[in-house]
Amino acid sequence: MLMNKTQRLVELLLTLNTRNKFTLKDLSERFGVSKRTVLRDINELSALGIPLYAELGVHGGYRILKERTLPPIHILEQEAVALFSASQSLKYYRALPMESDWRSALAKFYHILPEDIKERIDRLQQRVLFWVPAQSFESPYLSTLLEGALEQKVLHISYESEHSITEREIQLVGLYSMNGKWYCPAYDFLNNDYRLFRADRFTHVSDSPDQSRKRNHDKLLISDWFSKDQEREESQEKYDLRVRLTQRGVLLCRDDAWIGSGLTIFEDGTGYINRQIPLGYLTWAANYFAGLKADAIVEEPQELRTLILKNLRETIAIYDEGEQ
């Protein structure tokens, strides 16, 4: 059955994406047309932006460059609007893996849409917003980290912690974002354990020359990290956490998912936190509740009260020095 020109161009594009190299003779026989017709079709695809490369000689032929172009797809109006709606959730991130590719794809897609659908998408973007808190720091290695996660490479990194910059080798489980920040759970070969890294704190990332230590993460997915985090929390020593909250304290605490799970709100708007806290959370909790001042009074554990008091004394000492 002979194809019309449009069908043949689509089939030709599909063929080019599935073969490393091809000759005019191969394609002429496949589509039942002359070599001249095939050459015209190839030139038309090239004019449309398909990255084709011609090699001369006995073993020459045509091949498509690495940046392959996918065949056209047919989508409904509602599907097009839904895609742009979903893309809004990424709009306010300071950094994104493959950001230029994402923006380029959306621009191309938007360009070919009918005017009435463009207007609907424009109205949607004016009325719906997925806000992400603005971040002032850069994450220049996001794409490298994503590639490392996808290919499961061992990476050599320099990482800036609160205390120093260290060099180590890691193997990423994946990446996830929360509140505008990117996080990288990974196996840390320096500590022989899984650790959580912030993407904006990497000062250098490259492939390790030694890939022989690569771990098998086939059954460890990024979604599994949160259950592993729960397991680590459950394995730690725990303390009973008791905190009295004013009305303002309730408003501030209920937005935190972890604290909110142990919060009781009374009829007068005040509240009480009653839950267990792992040992590893004490330092964080001391800073958090100290920031709430008189709106959060920690009753237990004593270890947390001691940490809060220590932090407050250190802060007072710093300000006392400035007044002298």
Automatic annotation (TrEMBL):
GO MF: DNA-binding transcription factor activity
Keywords tagged on the record: Transcription, Transcription regulation
Gene3D superfamilies, per database record: Winged helix-like DNA-binding domain superfamily/Winged helix DNA-binding domain
Keyword Ribonucleoprotein: no
Keyword Transcription: yes
PROSITE patterns: HTH_DEOR_2, WYL
One of the Pfam families matching this protein, by short name: HTH_11
SUPFAM superfamilies noted in UniProt: Winged helix' DNA-binding domain
Boundaries of every HTH deoR-type domain copy: 5-64
UniProt name for this protein: YafY family transcriptional regulator
Organism of origin: Paenibacillus zeisoli
